[in-house]
């Protein structure tokens, strides 16, 4: 109820060529996507999902009460449960999206780490997945295109997940030296 109006307000006098989103329940995609598409029909709505849990792009109809046959476990928490939620199905049937851009769990984790290291953006695996999909869109989009992706989670929820599996709990020597250089009261 608030996401689409906020986007439309922020881009009221600006171009918005692509809006990229993943899906969990499908609520943001279906709700915000519908409003954006109605207000700005030229904006391309890009839906992303894990490569190994490509439920929407499989085209297979969901059997109620069963695990979707295209679903496999993936590390993108908050995205793509083992079924197609009804709210998502409604958005798919309404043809809200223009394209599906799949991303792997590995790409999502790597992109989340790059966002933290190079941009100071501490997001989770699904944020990394959304950004990875947006970067793929940017590779194909015409020069000067405006691409929006929202990073809807924070990295602090993922400290004990594969996102940080390769980061040691204790500081190494270089990190200790940096710590010593910080004034302590």
Report on this structure.
The chain is 39% helix and 10% strand. The mean pLDDT is 91. It has a four-stranded parallel beta sheet. Strand 1, helix 2 and strand 2 (44-50) form a beta-alpha-beta unit. With 185 residues, the chain is an alpha/beta fold. The chain has seven helices and four strands; from the N terminus they run H-E-H-E-H-H-E-H-H-E-H.
Helix content: 25-40%
Distance between the amino and carboxyl termini: 46 Å
Quaternary structure annotation: single chain
Major beta sheet, strand line-up: 3-2-1-4
Using only CA atoms, what is the Rg?
18 Å
Main sheet summary: 4 strands, parallel
Mean of the pLDDT scores? 91
Q: Quick one: overall form?
A: globular
Uncertain spans, ≥5 residues at pLDDT below 50? none
The number of helical runs is: 7
> How large a portion of the residues is in β-strands, by DSSP E?
5-15%
**Strand element count:** 4
Secondary structure topology:
Layout: H1 3-10, E1 18-21, H2 27-39, E2 44-50, H3 55-58, H4 86-93, E3 99-103, H5 105-119, H6 125-140, E4 147-149, H7 173-181
Parallel strand pairs: 1-2, 1-4, 2-3
Helix pairs in contact: 1-2, 2-4, 5-6
């Amino acid at each position: 109820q608030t996401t689409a109006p906020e986007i439309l307000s922020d881009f009221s006098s600006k171009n918005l060529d692509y809006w990229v989103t993943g899906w969990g329940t499908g609520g943001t995609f279906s709700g915000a996507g519908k409003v954006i598409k109605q207000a700005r029909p030229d904006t391309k709505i890009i839906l992303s999902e894990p490569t190994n849990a490509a439920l929407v792009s499989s085209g297979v109809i969901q059997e109620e009460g069963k695990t979707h046959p295209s679903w496999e476990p993936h590390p993108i928490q908050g995205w793509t449960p083992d079924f197609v939620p009804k709210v998502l199905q409604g958005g798919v049937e309404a043809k809200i999206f223009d394209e599906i851009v799949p991303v792997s769990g590995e790409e999502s984790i790597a992109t989340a780490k790059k966002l933290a290291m190079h941009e100071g953006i501490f997001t989770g695996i699904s944020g990394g997945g959304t950004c990875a999909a947006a970067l793929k869109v940017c590779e194909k989009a015409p020069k000067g295109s405006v691409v929006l992706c929202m990073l809807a989670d924070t990295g602090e929820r993922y400290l004990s997940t594969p996102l940080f599996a390769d980061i040691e709990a204790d500081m190494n020597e270089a990190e200790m030296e940096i710590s010593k250089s910080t004034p302590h009261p």
